[in-house]
Records
---
Amino acid sequence: MAGAPIDRAASVRTLPGIGPSRADALSLRGIVSVGDLLRLFPREYVLPGEKRSVAEARAGETVVLDVRLDSIRALRRGWRVTAVEGVLADATGSIRALWFHAPYLARSLKPGARLLVKGTPSGSPLALLHPEFETIRKEEEREFERIVARYPAIPSLPPRVLRKAIRRALEHVGTPDDPLPEDLRVRLGFPEIREALLAAHRPEAIEDARRARRRFVFEELYRLQSVFAVSLRARERARTPHVLAGACPLFSRFLATLPFRLTADQERAIEEIRADLESGRPMERLLVGDVGSGKTVVAAAGIACAVGHGGQAALLVPTEVLARQHARALGERFGPLGVEVGLLTGDCSMLERKRVRERIAKGDLALVVGTHALLQEATRFRNLALAVVDEQHRFGVRQRAILPAKGERCHFLLLSATPIPRSLALTLYGDLDLSVIRELPPGRMPVATKRLVDRKAAEAYRNLRERIEAGEQGFVLFPLVEESEAKDRRAAASAAEKLAKGFFRGRRVGLLHGRLPVAERIETVERLREGAIDVLVATTIVEVGIDLPRATVMIIEGADRFGLSQLHQIRGRVGRSDLPASCFLVTRGPITPEAEERLRAIESTNDGFRIAEEDLRIRGSGELLGERQHGPLGLGLADLVRDIDLLEEARREAFAQASFSGDLPEPIRAG
Ligand code: ADP
Ligand code: MG
């Protein structure tokens, strides 16, 4: 083939068919250079053997047809074009295709054109509704005898042009440097870069394309894990932490006086934490566990170890209510062992805060629980050895990092709110070590979960009234959506009033939402704990950490408005003892198919890890990582559900690589 060599760094405009406006369209996807374009991965392939004849088309089965356009016309109602109808034919017969919202097709498609069409026939007689298609030009006919790569749609850039540009680039660009170290690539059996690019864009066999994809996915994951490995090692070099080794009577006594037996997972997590504290490396560990799996006691064991070795420990939580709950629970454990628990929140009086801060600074208070007040400049520690952050997702990355920075040689433990799949944890928190609690304490029964639509919701309220008779408690939860926060709050307040006067007359109904003064919120939770409130009407504030063993009924109004992990977290507020508990998912009016899928998932299982995996499946890793995360992480191709094996392998290799250096490969773009 003729043509001068093309530089990978050259603009895509050096390629045939790419003018200024098409170059602009490409740049919107982050594709500027020829090298970038080669990293645009096909989203699928059409195999020659995959094409079916028209006669073989069946209702409900997706087919690829290689057809001639017999006729095409716009269907109108009055002047308005309602659809464009084409008749597609091959030697075996003909089938109708209808395209909506695309009146221009009636002009741009010409009878006699050869089309590659993909769609799912339906109806009788069979028709294709809005099928995907592309025109096969005469000069491209030979291309369609082989495997055809199909790329993500890019506005104003016909697939034919894109393919031709990529073909040219493949032919005239020299072999790029391979971002994967040669020995690693060979050992893992991945194709080298040039071969992989060819196989991705113009595979001879579909198996080659698959191998190429795995190579690029690996490359992408390896790159990210290498960043983690490097940052972890830098951290290790930068600090020499407290070495909390040797016998620790406080730790032993803490474990010996627990009122229950630890689960095997809790024991293992505690062991992992202890090993970190002893190791001479600074711990940075994420503890992932299901709602109610008992993460607090694991953190407390770490605290016992730190304090027992003469260090200070601090526990940061997102709300006042949770701070008090933890201070009380830790007080019950540590008080008898002679360790005082300090409380530092925005709600404490100035004087109290000042006193607590002085004692922390002097080092005569070894353990403190608090909210954001802990993070303020004025809070200084004498000897902070362990920083713990509960419900860590409620804090920003920078915010989280403030607490451990208050101790020169501090260990760091983060607690998750809900389970997240391992693959996601390794991707989002890959520079942390991971401990996982999968099992719940014994005796917990799954929360019976039931959906109730519209007027059927009465069943939930009747059930709650019966439980109250038996001395139990329940929640009625209303969604809080930011844009209409005031409205939702009003809804909760007026519902509380109505329920108190009507259905729950004579019972004690409490109200909790984020706009109530803190003191009132704390008092309400106190009264709930003492059993002085039977029903708590609330907005999502209860989703965070409250632990009330006698609460057995959760009614979620507008359940379709919550996300999957949120629903799981909310449901986790009941069923925290051996009393049987129920959760009612109430919806009123029509709901979206996605909401339908979420509710079905939450109804079908109580296993938070399965729910988290389902969430990942439903939404895809792209959305779960969030656009914000996705870009910088450079994960365009990897699918955290499908590629988990490659992720584990990439992590192993990246961390094993003693001194990864050099430039990181550029990210791969999603296909
Ligand atoms: P979460 O993991 O959601 O933060 P918590 O730490 O609040 O859960 O624990 C939930 C409840 O389970 C608490 O009342 C706690 O005392 C209790 N608990 C924790 N571990 C065990 C265990 N091994 N056996 C029995 N109860 C336990
Ligand atoms: Mg908790």
---
Amino acid sequence: MNITVIGTGYVGLTTGVCMASKGHKVYCVDISKEKIDAINSGTSPIYEEGMDDLLKQALKKGLLKATLDAENSIKDSEVVFICVGTPSREDGSINLDYIKTAAETVSQNLNNYKVIVVKSTVVPGTTVNVVKPVMDKSKKSYGLCMNPEFLKEGTAVKDFLEGDRIVLGVIDDESEDVMRKVYKDFPQKIFVTNPTTAEMIKYANNSLLAAKISFANEVGNVCKKLGINVYEVMDGVGMDKRLCRSFLNAGIGFGGSCFPKDVKALISKGEELKEPMTLLKSVISVNEKQPIKMVELLKKHLNPANKKIGLLGLAFKKGTDDVREAPSLKIIDELLSLKAEVIAYDPEAMSNVKKIYNNKIILADNKEEVVKKSDAVLIITDWDEFKVPELYKNKIVIDGRKIKTNAEIYEGICW
Ligand code: UGA
């Protein structure tokens, strides 16, 4: 089938490349010439395991083309995926401007029947109340589907090709038939529902995962005071099949472009409907305090003022260069406000952090330099290269990620 994907961020590019890997002919549309050129030359603008290989194969077979030309791509396609960003506004509500612009572009170029697929994460009601009216303006026949993504940064390609299920929120049988054809060579089970339910599945999914993490952190904070290892507690809890062990790793809290934004957007939707989401507000509140606990533990051992504090890891999790909503940023801000000097290293995220702090922190060349030059070390991200117990010999270490160390003074955040 011919498919257009609008937006070449990590969701859009993953969708395009994975669809091409199944034999579809894909146009990846974006407004950034730089990104288009990179993709067409076989270099993915984002780092995702397996992405460059699949991209190169798709280009070689002539099954993928990145382009600025939305008009002709849409006209030549049977299916159009909308994969643009849905950032948060100041008040936590979702900004749908990019979705509206993409929908207008599709609507203006509807030359024959095609299925429009919203893949961006949008609050319940958006596909039917915002996207559909724009399509109706075209006076052409079309199909509509809300197809949420469940991709984790770092394993997006694998998650797309082998994830737990595919959710199709369709407006009619014809849209479902086309979408089943799109996904016919994917092994996952397909769950069919309406668009608004599909939108809520995505929000409920991310919110429950975030809730598991905040739950583990809250229990972990109490465990810390009782001298209990929360990882052992969660290993025991996770043996209950009703609960499942994953996403119960306590630590410095969740970051990234998804959990904080999606939970806040759902809270904001609840407010709008006069249904305050007390539980989810607490999930956010626990999460916001968690990184600061690292600094509180540090203060037990030294006064950070005028001391050099080393940070190992800056990305919100390993396997990515992404620092959006990363706990590291809160910790850096707190340390700088306490007049500490910060020296940090991350294998991937240094340039993104440099854009935020310029010369306010020292960016080291490697982990050894951080450890050597600092008065105490905070472990922020669990990159494999930091899992060397010897590295921390004779140091004060505050660990947010449960890494084994030979530190002289060691404090785990929740253990
Ligand atoms: C998350 C979801 O896992 C995906 O299913 C979803 O598609 C995606 O958001 C999205 O909405 O696009 P992602 O943000 O890439 O994926 O990363 P996760 O691996 O889920 O981790 C999120 C955060 O939670 C990280 O900061 C991680 O360190 C933290 N985390 C995760 C914990 O603190 N403890 C855990 O047990 C698991």
---
Amino acid sequence: MIKRFMTLERHIIEGERKHPAATGELSKLLSDLVIAAKVISLEVNKAGLMDILGYTGDNNIHGEQVKKLDMYAHEMIFKAMDHGGHLCVMASEEEEDIIHIPDAFEIGKYVLLFDPLDGSSNIDVNVSIGTIFSIYKRVSPQGLPGTLEDCLQPGLKQVAAGYVVYGSSTIMVYTTSNGVHGFTLDPSIGEFLLSHENIRIPKKGRIYSINEGNYKFWHPGLKKYIKWLQDEELETDRPYSSRYIGSMVADVHRTLFYGGIFMYPQDSRNPNGKLRLMYECNPMSMIVEAAGGRATNGKKRILEIVPESLHQRTPIFIGSVDDVNLVEEFMSEENNNQEKE
Ligand code: P6P
């Protein structure tokens, strides 16, 4: 619901004014990103009409087949961001190495990491997909090209994070640690308008979200937790409902609004789970924590993980504080039981 005619650009500028030391550069960076989001949204919403569905025939560095829309989104963001003069380096989930700012352009003080189109396996069947971004301040000397070190910072160092979910409408949610705010794209005027101010995640939910097809490979404590959620007990809102879209942006977006928990755990086949720390888990964790929720790898805050490589994966349990705390208790209790045996 549009409460007041507040565009995303104006909200960003007003938000930055609250920081006395702000130079306005972050506002301009975020506004450039908004332009990319509008263009990607346009293509996503007519993908079925254009020859940009299907596969490019290439594989990305993770061996996954690259969708045309994936690459389109990647290129759109690069072209929108490379010449603004705000960045010293970028990194994309679609590119193996860091992406340098072309020599012709001014080098800035920020770092942008992004997943151009998360959930791309859903593109051809019209299921919600999304763009995720994460912004840091550089740590290497000003004026020089950015480095891998600039990109490998713990999530706690993020100065901004956000996502765009391309669904029944296109919504952009972002935070600069001054609350979490959602904006809905009004295609008739090409503006993102404030629709969800100061989003707060419920302390406890009654929806859990996980790919139950992997049940056999899970930690025994997680198996017990999921079975516990499926038992009946009115006082603890059980049984929970199960919802799984298979697109992290959409699953976490729902969790942010309705509460509950989204999980992509490690399992016996994937000891670090599937989702990427830098492109998916850190930005989503900053947003959910800023909205009053919690995000861990089952033991430790996602935002405190010190990254070792650009594309490293991490298990993630993210959502309402009570729900994340409880799944951790189930897994730690099971670990203790196993140690006693
Ligand atoms: P699975 C999409 O491909 C993605 O990277 C995330 O958006 C999503 O949460 C996850 O993978 C789904 O993975 O193994 O359940 O299909």
---
Amino acid sequence: MSTTSRIAHIAIVVEKLDDALRFWRDALGLPLAHTEQNPAENVEIAFLPLGESEIELLQPTAPESGIGKFLARRGAGMHHLCLEVEDIEATMERLRAHDVELINETPRERPDGTRYAFIHPKSAFGVLVELYEAPRG
Ligand code: ZN
């Protein structure tokens, strides 16, 4: 039996990180842990820890990327909700058994070993949901 342990992060697409940080960091007072480039996804990300979770601000670095197209089509706003699970394969299996449509058929892996997959918003009542399994060990 697989469990969902926490909200890992909420990702928000923004036009400019600096502008968004004036709200999230300066006005609301959240700490900025770090920013990083993700060349594979054409995005620059600012990480703002909040309790056991994080707010991730995503600024596209290429207009033709997935995030770039999202911004052009819908404007700035919430992009996805990420839930940490203990066993991503077991979770995906369980979702398939409940006729939930997955965007990724198998988990993808980040350089740090984090494994992730997305659930289609059609199956999640309009919300893009990411599943995330922390590196083991
Ligand atoms: Zn995410």
